[in-house]
Specification:
alpha/beta, 12 helices, TIM Barrel, binds phosphoenolpyruvate, 8-stranded parallel barrel, 8 strands, 254 residues, globular, 15% strand
């Protein structure tokens, strides 16, 4: 099955609203006619509404993403943001379980599973579901075990219909923001394993529909290595997505 490649940016806690808008305008101009691959920008909450409006105004093909979401509908959850608040801003994708949420903010597989269930029950925005092992887990030969656990628990009760709409981002934690990217072989091996597990959890047809990205120090000069592989359906990009020219190159240099 042919899956449409998806290159998404994760801006993390960077950029003012003005900088975000200016990025969106010039990125849109450069990519608006590209149709053989999808691109998206996952941006801080502060600029979601303005960028959502701009996207609509420009009729832009760029997907808009949020970096996180709470699983409750509403209520006394100071500092959190709900599903409907994101939807109101025009969000298409929500990153669930980025390694910084897991390892800096202590989000567990159980919490991430609740977030996936919230997205599933509303069925209006798609998940970019992140998984990946720590360096010590890799060194202890536990990569596959960790990936299996994160998928089994994080996707518990998620139907094949909803799962087939999600994007999985395989992001080895040791490669994120470090400049040390996974080799093509390491990325392909992990992603092949992830698809095999999705096949076990669901079925062949569902597993073939799900796009699996690689993330971890992707740059204009290494993206082609990953995108050369049939197994890898795109990338989740942090540092190299903060400048328009660099992100355009990541999207087009393969
Ligand atoms: C990320 O934030 O998901 C990421 C992969 O960051 P970087 O590209 O900077 O490693």
């Amino acid at each position: 099955m042919k899956r449409k490649p998806f290159i998404a940016a994760n801006w993390k806690m960077h950029k003012s609203i003005e900088e975000g808008i200016s990025f969106f305008n010039s990125f849109h101009e450069k990519v608006k006619n590209i149709s053989d691959r999808e691109t998206g920008l996952c941006v801080p909450y502060t600029m979601l509404y303005e960028i959502g409006k701009l996207k609509k105004h420009l009729n832009s093909p760029i997907a808009l993403g949020a970096e996180n979401m709470h699983f409750e509908e509403q209520g006394a959850f100071t500092g959190e943001i709900s599903h409907d608040m994101l939807l109101e801003c025009g969000v298409d994708y929500v990153i669930i379980g980025h390694s910084e949420r897991r390892h800096v903010f202590g989000e567990t597989d159980e919490v991430l599973n609740k977030k996936m269930h919230k997205l599933q029950s509303k069925n209006q925005m798609k998940a970019i579901f992140c998984i990946g092992e720590l360096l010590e887990e890799r060194e202890a030969g536990k990569t596959n075990e960790v990936l299996r656990r994160q998928m089994k628990q994080g996707l518990d009760g998620i139907t094949k219909e909803f799962a087939s709409t999600m994007v999985v981002a395989y992001e080895p934690v040791w490669a994120i923001g470090t400049g040390v990217s996974a080799t093509k072989d390491d990325a392909v091996n992990a992603i092949t394993f992830v698809r095999k597990e999705l096949n076990e959890l669901y079925d062949e047809e569902t597993a073939q529909k799900i796009r699996i990205q690689y993330g971890g120090s992707v740059k204009p000069n290494n993206i082609h290595e990953y995108m050369d592989s049939e197994e890898i359906d795109g990338a989740l990009v942090g540092g190299a997505a903060l400048k328009v020219d660099s992100f355009v190159q990541v999207l087009t240099k393969w």
